[in-house]
Each structure stands twice: as structure tokens, then as C-alpha cells.
């Protein structure tokens, strides 16, 4: 008797701490139905704003879209007023594990648990700013801690965008992000995972996929410079090495995105069949032809360059960044004329999370129309993130990732900076 009593009380205490849902028999609940109404709605594909706009949401999906929809009995009704309903924004190049300040020192001074908590807070800032889907392009030394953040978001434990994550980026010894500038005897770790040849690339990709990476990020070029108006950035992997990485990623249902700024690295990446070339300052005519033919997306990341130019570490760094910005702006116009497909990615992290709508603005400032920037960001972005026909447009059957912005984004792309309403997966995360 005596021995049974404590065991019983333990069971009782445990039961009392269980959430209510776990204590009762499962009940099938009808999905929540909500009708959203606003003065306007954006048709991303057509590049048009229609008035008024309504979206019917059932559970996590969009059920219907139109001007005046019948309101189902028992549904909730949200009148958002003088705003434009549009799909949640997509950022195809983020770093949840970075925050402003000395980027390299952050990865040296902060533990991975601390960085993971900061990443959770970054995910919250991004989604509340209207970014409902992101491709995180490397934790910069926090290995696969991004998998934990992605899973916590997916389990509803913390707010954040739909995430595609890539663990550490992959680089060569002495290459990009390999603690260059530190005394090697201090053994400051690389922010990337090392792979020095084809076999090591395959092996690291297998480890990262085991660790939960959705996407593979490879540094294809190293330190950039412009000298006498000519851009230089040494390549890190040959076309054959990158092709082996792409084949291995594909074998397990994944894809490769490269950090690649200049030639011939960009050509090697395009020939190898990567999914995206990020930064892409310099693209040769042959690289652009391949990108068009194979629908490889360029992701310009103008916002990070602007931030670095505005917050330089030294006068020399400021001059270098400004030179790169004007070089890239001129090349971007050539890329637009050549019909290169684009997605929108900001490289947020080194600059504050939640402010990356600036990337959409900078693409317009550099010569793309707002309608084309929105198509690139949302329709191409959805393809690049492997959620084509699921996100990026307001259509029946798509996920209910919906935001509202004041004004008309086709007239002023700046309105993306000020979402007043954010819904992800049918759940309202923000309503001002
Ligand atoms: Zn990046």
C-alpha cells in the first residue's frame, strides 16, 4: 500500500500538468472560416489592383478570392478598411542567425544556444513585417541549429515564416567565411562547413541532409574587389565539383543555391545547374543565356550592400562598398535587358530583421517595374522555395499567407514597409 501511494500521486500530478487538449478525447472540429474584406486586392500574376477585394479562408488554406464573396454562415468577418490585400512577402535570402554589429565577432562571441534564441526573435520580427516565407541561406557557424527554429515554427511554438533552412554554408579551407584575418593558431572556427573537393562536397551534403537541411548553400566565390573598373572574385569550386554537389542534392530531393558574385564562378554554377545565383554582381552573356534557358534565378541582395555602405567599418570599406554598388547597379540593368529570371532576397541579418522590404524598393530603384519586382519576389520566390502553387499568390487552394498594406504597391512599392495585417497559415499574427 505504502509503495503504491506515491506512484498514484505522481500520476495525478502529471495528469494535472497536461494541456487540456491532451486530457480529453479528440473531437473533430470544423476548420475556422474567415472572410477578409479590404478596399483593394493585388493580382500578382496580372500586375493589377482590383477594388474591392475579399478572401475567404478555411483552416490554413484560401477557399475563394473575389470582389464580393458570399459570407458562409458562422464565419468570422474582418473588414480591414482602406488597405490592399496581397500575398505574404517572400525573402529568398535571409540569415536568422545574424544580427547587426560586427558580423564575424558575433559568431565568435555568442554561443549557439544564445544565437538560436536570437534567431527565434529574428523569425518573429520577419513574419510580423509581412515575410511569411523565407529561405535561410546559412547559419554562419551555428551548424543545423536553424532546423530547430524551423521545427519550432512549424509546431506553432514560436511565430515565424515558413522556413527553408540550409545549416552552415559550404566552403573551402581559406575560402569565404573561413575566419580570414585571425591568427590561425587561435583556431577561430570557419563559419562554413569545409569541403575541398568533390567527394568532400558529397559527404558534407549527406551530413547536412541528415541534420535536417532543406537546401544546400555553397560559397562559389571569395572576396570581391573592383580595380580600374574591373570586377574580380576568385571562384572556389570547378564546374565538375559543383555538378557533383547538385547531383547529390537532387538525389535526396534537395537543391543548391550559391553565393556567387563574379565570373567564372557564376558560369560554373549555371553550367552545374544550381537553383539560384545569389548576389550575382557580374554575369557573362553565356551565364545569362543559361540562366534564362534553365530558369536559374539571380538574387541581387541590394539591401545588404546599401547597409554596409551606410555603416562602413572604415573609410576604405565604404569606398569599396560604394564602388560595388554602382558596378552592380549597371550590371543589373544589363541582366534585366537580357531577360535573366530574378527572385527577391535581401541578405537580412547583418542589417535589422523586419526591415528587408527595402530589397523590393531597391530593385524598383534599380530599374525594374513594381509589378515585375512583385512577380519576381512572390511567384519566382515561391518556385525557388519549392512552394510553387502553394504560396506567392492569392488563389483558391493556396496557403492563407496574406498581408494587408496601405496604399497601392504598384504605385508605391514603399507601402510594403508598413503591413497592417499579417495572416500565416490562416492564423492572424498581426492586426493593427
Ligand atoms: Zn547571405
Overview in brief:
With 432 residues, the chain is α/β, with parallel strands linked by helices. The protein has helices at 4-17, 20-23, 103-109, 112-128, 145-154, 198-211, 239-251, 265-272, 285-294, 302-310, 315-337, 358-365, 370-384; strands spanning 33-38, 40-43, 48-50, 53-58, 61-66, 76-79, 83-87, 89-94, 131-136, 162-164, 170-171, 193-194, 216-219, 225-227, 230-232, 256-260, 276-279, 297-299, 402-406, 421-424, 427-431.
Mean pLDDT: 92
CATH topology name of the largest domain, in short, is TIM Barrel
Radius of gyration: 23 Å
Low-confidence stretches: 1-23
User: What structural class results from the helix and strand content?
Assistant: alpha/beta
CATH architecture of the largest domain: Alpha-Beta Barrel
With helices defined by DSSP (H or I, 4 residues minimum), what is the helix count?
13
Helix fraction, binned, reads 25-40%
Report the end-to-end length measured between terminal Cα atoms.
Answer: 59 Å
Q: Report the sheet with the most strands, covering strand number, pairing sense and barrel closure.
A: 6 strands, mixed
In the CATH hierarchy, what is the superfamily of the largest domain?
Answer: Metal-dependent hydrolases
Bound molecules: zinc ion
- Write down how many β-strands occur, each being a DSSP E stretch of 2 or more residues: 21
Number of structural units classed as domains: 2
Shape: globular
The strand line-up of the biggest sheet is 3-2-7-19-20-21
Strand content: 15-25%
InterPro entries: Amidohydro-rel, Metal-dep_hydrolase_composite, Metal_Hydrolase, Metallo-dep_Hydrolase, OTAase-like
Pfam family, one: Amidohydro_1
GO molecular function: hydrolase activity, acting on carbon-nitrogen (but not peptide) bonds
Protein name: Imidazolonepropionase
